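Weekly structure sync - notes
Attendees: PM, LS, DV (DV joined late)
Agenda: review two folding runs queued last week.

Item 1: First target. Sequence and structure tokens pasted below for the record.
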Amino acid sequence: MRLLPGLAVLLCIIDVSTAAFADVGHDRTQFGHDIVVGPNEEVGDATCFGCTIRVRGHIAGDATTFAGSIVVEDNGQIAGDATTFGGGVRLSRDVSVNGDVTVFGGRIRRDPAATVQGNVTVFGGPIWLFLIFGLPFVLLGAFIALIVWLIRRLLRPAVPAAA
């Protein structure tokens, strides 16, 4: 009998916590599977790792890809920014991006009838990908090598002087 009130309280807590963490903005995140926003569909933010975001409807937030592309077509709209790392952006006729379009290590193909309200920035070529992702690892490796060298030097036994 004492277990029943505790169980009721636990069920209420679970119910309230799931409502608090519900996906209000209908964001989409995928790893290796393309995100397709249909013609009459609205999504909050779209984030894709190793895949493509294809927009024919409306993204109310930002569209971001890592090693993938963003394709906006058929009157598609992105209310926020469109950013891709290691991929490209293609904007077809009569589409709009209300924020900025940023491309690192890729290309942008933009129809003259496509609208971009913000800035368009393209860091083309693989050197930018190396600078953004590779250089920090090279510097970290050099720092670790320096620490190992210093520790080995400090722990090296002293050689006695010849008499």
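Item 2: Second target, run right after the first with the same settings.
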Amino acid sequence: MSFTRKHILGGALVVLLGAIVGITYRSLNGLHGQRVIRSAASYVVDVADAKQLVGWADNVFVGRVAGSAGTIYAASALPWNIYQVKVLENIKGDLPESVRVGQEGGFSIEQNAMLLMDNDKLLAPGKEYLFVTKADSRGWHTLVPGYGDIPIGASRQRRAITDKFKEAYAKEIPYDPKQ
């Protein structure tokens, strides 16, 4: 049987449509249709109170995720995703132009599941966030799950979020581990 250009293009179109359907299914249902396992964190401060959260943090800043700097897997722990982040505005602290930010959570091959801390979605390259972080001895800044990576959209939204955290910094409640 001889294949014409029409047959080849038709076959390629079917393959392309199959790939698009597969990618869409995976996007809606997670990578490879895996399940999501959510872990709950416990905190030493009321993370919903911006003044306490900022008082605990080493740094509060607006940044744009430049890309992934790798994933670290440890036995019997959630994976850590490390990102390179361009610092756009320091609110608390004085960070350099670019830092590494660590986020607990990620895909576990062993469990064939996405493991998320406090249902905190993984950071997206190219997106801007307000970060609330603590310096980590491993060389990155650890964000607070669910409260330390607030997505920033339009400029009005950015201003409202940064104003809220600037005010919280001015009235911060310093964390005292002895209390």
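Discussion on item 2: Residues 80 and 104 are 5 Å apart (CA to CA).
Action: LS to circulate a short write-up before next sync.
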